[in-house]
């Protein structure tokens, strides 16, 4: 029998390590995709709003495929969901090759949609799988630890974009491209899109290696939690849905996660445009600010995981959400180099938000967590919709002012932290027990 001292059940340590690789993997793709809004805006001479369809395709796939992933997990297992997700992501990454040959924007969107659909299934399966791998008392912190390796991937993704994609963009403006001959324009565009294709196709083979590793590893039987919902997890989707909608922490968790994803996507997608418009930086230099953001995100994730041993996650969530709001408004109303660094600092606030909201929302759901996880991943629709809103704001008012949109998106995150703090049965003294559990686990 597992003890409260265990952070991860002993028989699940190797599967946990393999899942950590998945967390890093989708981090690579997510941040390698963020600069594509600026890339396609340049390559195809389109508006920021049109180019924001990149994020609509990417996060729209999460919305559409998260619930089917939940059914896969319910019918089969988390391992099956992970393997199906990795397989579909591999297909999507390989589709970048024919898209680069056709040089058609719509084919790139299809490749992104397929890739993101696979990652949606992967993420819907991996997050609750990690939560199930140890005692519920430290589930949120365990998920934060696994998610701490996601920034390792995000840093790699930004580095790949900064070294393989952005430097290969031609310096010609939209007006200069319009004056070129068709043959000259196609030659430039071909080189740029080949640079986009290379890291994605290469990454397909990395995903394949992870797929093989997980397929060959024996995964222990998923254990039932002691929550009451575990006894009724097979009642069918309508009954599960009704129970979930009666759970206020889950219901408001969906709202908070929607706006968190919106804020994160807007921050990382438009940092490059902000740096270019407010400081005059070129594509490559502006890309390095995004790299700095990922480094801050990586370090802050580990610091936040440690801090949760001493401060309640909901307190940290509310404080960092309020700080992120202030930084975004500063960037909006004080454009320039200091505003760029304010956006870099926002990534420190982002570090703990997703796993903390996710862990709180799934707390005590038992078998219902399999469907609940799908609902939470569907909130990535925020990353599809809000970048289009901010893209329209950039076209109308400029990159600096547009970050008011991002700042407002952080407010529901603050509210959720305060809501959980005020409604938790354990009250303000719960973090002391949590700290003791963490100390024992370490």
Automatic annotation (TrEMBL):
Q: What is this protein called?
A: L-fucose:H+ symporter permease
Residues that span the membrane, as ranges: 12-33, 53-73, 80-97, 103-122, 143-166, 197-216, 252-276, 288-308, 315-333, 339-364, 371-390, 396-419
List locations, semicolon-separated: Cell inner membrane
Q: Which UniProt keywords apply?
A: Cell membrane, Membrane, Transmembrane, Transmembrane helix
- What membrane topology is given? Multi-pass membrane protein
Question: Which Pfam families does the record associate with it?
Answer: MFS_1
In terms of superkingdom, the source organism counts as Bacteria
Q: Does the keyword Protease apply?
A: no
Write down the InterPro entries for this protein, in alphabetical order.
Lfuc_symporter_FucP, MFS, MFS_trans_sf, MFS_TsgA-like
Is NADP given among the entry's keywords? no
> Which SUPFAM superfamilies does this UniProt record tie to the protein?
MFS general substrate transporter (SSF103473)
